[in-house]
Amino acid sequence: MTNLIETLKANTLVIIFIIMFLEALNLTGIPAIVIMPAVGVFIKSSGHSFLIVFAIATLGSILGSITYYLVSSKFGDIIYNFFYNKFPSTQKSLRKAKETAEKYGAKMCLIGRMLPTIRTFISLMSGIFKVKFKDYIIYSSIGIFVWNLVLMSFGYFGYILSTMTF
């Protein structure tokens, strides 16, 4: 058990990168709104650099989002048709998502990245509806940057406040 703990401590930054990469692919089962404040608390309590951990977590999120976009752009028609035909209750939502993508393009990523339920599907929908890749990366990266910064800051400064005596 001690070896496991030491291994985890030694590889913390890699683990954070992997968790955020997988979170962007919706594979962790735990959303960033839970993960990032915990990372903020970890940073303050462990002495790691906020900027370094923030950069690593954000890079993991961005690369995971790009991967999800590329997969969904490659298999978008199959994914869309599967859900549209197999689950008729999703048809209205899928049509609305398509209209939004056509109207706003990659700009929807900026705001969508900061809306808890919607952010889960931004990369998927952007890929399916062929949002311009360059624009997707720009707007998505800005949204991820802001989202991660806010959530990590909650954990980081929340930890500081919790240790203060008044």
TrEMBL record:
<dbReference type="InterPro" id="IPR051311">
    <property type="entry name" value="DedA_domain"/>
</dbReference>
<dbReference type="InterPro" id="IPR032816">
    <property type="entry name" value="VTT_dom"/>
</dbReference>
<feature type="transmembrane region" description="Helical">
    <location>
        <begin position="12"/>
        <end position="43"/>
    </location>
</feature>
<feature type="domain" description="VTT">
    <location>
        <begin position="30"/>
        <end position="156"/>
    </location>
</feature>
<dbReference type="Pfam" id="PF09335">
    <property type="entry name" value="VTT_dom"/>
</dbReference>
<keyword id="KW-0812">Transmembrane</keyword>
<protein>
    <submittedName>
        <fullName>DedA family membrane protein</fullName>
    </submittedName>
</protein>
<keyword id="KW-1003">Cell membrane</keyword>
<keyword id="KW-0472">Membrane</keyword>
<comment type="similarity">
    <text>Belongs to the DedA family.</text>
</comment>
<dbReference type="GO" id="GO:0005886">
    <property type="term" value="C:plasma membrane"/>
</dbReference>
<feature type="transmembrane region" description="Helical">
    <location>
        <begin position="136"/>
        <end position="161"/>
    </location>
</feature>
<keyword id="KW-1133">Transmembrane helix</keyword>
<feature type="transmembrane region" description="Helical">
    <location>
        <begin position="49"/>
        <end position="71"/>
    </location>
</feature>
